[in-house]
Design goal:
The chain is an alpha+beta fold and 318 residues long. Helix content is 50%, strand content 10%. The protein is built from 15 helices and eight strands. The strands form three sheets. It has a four-stranded antiparallel sheet with strand order 5-6-8-7. Strands 1-2 form a two-stranded parallel ribbon. A two-stranded antiparallel ribbon has the order 3-4. Helix 9 packs across helix 10.
Length: 318
């Protein structure tokens, strides 16, 4: 009887040991399976370092899946770390980087993002498309985004000579916003006068053709907009001055200072700011203001971006 008990006890011990070994092997197998099927392991096999893997795994699934499905990409983290990175532009970023790598200068990823987002990696008036008119006052019109062919707004009004030099027109809501702004400025001793407002397709065509005829097409593209690519043709842009000021001294004037401090309160933005010429496609124009509506104007101001950059990141959803 005693021997039987010893045998039973040994069997129980053996079964217990066997069960423990089985559990250990099972857990080890699960851990190994998880390891070899984990994103960390897969990314490591592709060639990413531990530091790079940590950065990639902090990204959205879209970017992680891209990394898993492609060969090692040494630009992935540099690009996705940029504040204004747009995923749909990724292939365009890569193509632009390839072009830059043919040159001796080091790749500036922030510059890559900015140029590709705004299309300024291309020559003016190439890779153009029609702007999204559904955006209303948020449309982008520049050297890459055009108005519909021979566009003409249907709500154009005359600007009274109280607020403008003779002969200027603008869209009705833009005039109402400008009138409100001009009246507020007047109370602070600042006189705002519209120097140029809405321009028809024909007017803009004649202006551009004159520049091109007298100075060549490259010069015309630097200093004037082609017809259908003009903000003035949209009826949303105003050139604003004061009596006695001109293009040479406007930026040093109290009028310019007042406008830059207050224009967004009335729905306007400074369209071509200083130092942003490569992005906007135009030299600094302290007198050129674009109406986008009060809400959007405040958002653009807060972002610190040009309207071209803001449009690419926040408004262009195609």
């Amino acid at each position: 009887m005693y021997r039987k008990r010893r045998k039973i006890k040994k069997k129980v011990i053996y079964l217990g040991i066997g069960l423990i070994l089985f559990i250990i092997l099972l857990i080890t197998g699960i851990l190994l399976y998880k390891h070899f099927t984990s994103n960390e392991y897969k990314l490591g096999k592709i060639g990413y370092s531990e530091k790079e893997i940590t950065s990639i795994l902090k990204l959205d699934d879209t970017y992680i899946n891209y990394a898993l499905e492609h060969k090692y990409d040494d630009d992935l983290i540099q690009l996705t770390n940029q504040k204004w990175f747009i995923w749909k532009n990724y292939d365009k970023y890569k193509d632009y980087i390839k072009d830059l790598e043919k040159q001796p200068a080091e790749v500036n990823y922030e510059d890559v993002i900015t140029k590709v987002n705004t299309k300024t990696n291309y020559k003016y008036y190439t890779h153009t498309e029609e702007t999204n008119m559904d955006l209303g006052y948020g449309i982008l019109v520049n050297k890459y985004y055009s108005l519909p062919n021979q566009y003409a707004p249907d709500d154009i009004v005359d600007i009274p000579t109280t607020y403008s030099f003779a002969g200027n027109q603008i869209r009705e809501e833009v005039f109402n916003a400008f009138k409100e702004m001009a009246d507020a400025a007047k109370e602070e001793g600042i006189t705002l006068i519209v120097n140029s407002g809405y321009r028809t397709y024909e007017y803009q065509k004649n202006l551009y053709d004159q520049y091109a005829r007298e100075n060549g097409e490259d010069f015309a593209d630097d200093y004037a907009a082609r017809p259908d690519f003009s903000e003035h043709q949209s009826g949303l842009a105003l050139d604003i001055v004061s009596y006695g000021l001109n293009m040479d001294n406007f930026a040093e004037s109290d009028t310019y200072k007042w406008l830059t401090e207050n224009c967004t309160d009335y729905g306007f933005i400074l369209r071509y700011p200083e130092g942003k010429e490569e992005i906007t496609g135009y030299a600094f124009e302290g007198w050129h203001y674009r109406y986008v509506g009060k809400d959007l104007a405040k958002k653009v101001e807060k972002s610190g971006l040009t309207f071209d950059e803001y449009y690419a990141y926040y408004l262009d959803k195609d």
